[in-house]
Here is the input.
Amino acid sequence: MLQASTIAVVSVEEARYASPYARILVPTDGSELAGEAATQALALAASTGAAVVFLTVNEPFHLLTTSTEMIEATREEYERQAEAHAETILSEAGDAATDAGVPFITVRKWGEDPYLDIIDVAHERRCDLIAMGSHGRRGLSAVLLGSVTNKVLTHSSIPVLVVRRFDRPAALVGAPAGGPEVAGAGVG
Here is the structure.
């Protein structure tokens, strides 16, 4: 049919745009919120063809500390428990990536300031995006507790995807996100 055409015909395949994200760093401490961030990062990676780098950072042992894990253990016990915990976290993250069909690697670090290790690993592994969870603390609790996510946002030159858990008011449970109840909330 194309050969019989009296006009010029150009055959074009469907255009595909490359994702700006080839590699996504997902720092995780094994918490529920970190798991939610990993789930979102894996969904993004699966839809764009990106790979994921899972990272966990263990705090080194200190004799003077308020951490119950360090107070109750010797240095060797603490390090063994921390390694086992990191292995569990990274294994579960890897299983989730495998289930999602996303290529991944895992990185385990020891560091005093996790935010610095997160930024360093993102650069070392040439990540295009960092995906992290945040509790969204405000006011005095944010100042006192600090936030690894906030520090990464402040100091990273790499874009950061922040995943927050929003607790919906009881009246909105079951209502569609962005529905009229949400759109009208707080309006005059």
Q: What stands out?
A: DSSP finds seven helices and five strands in the chain.
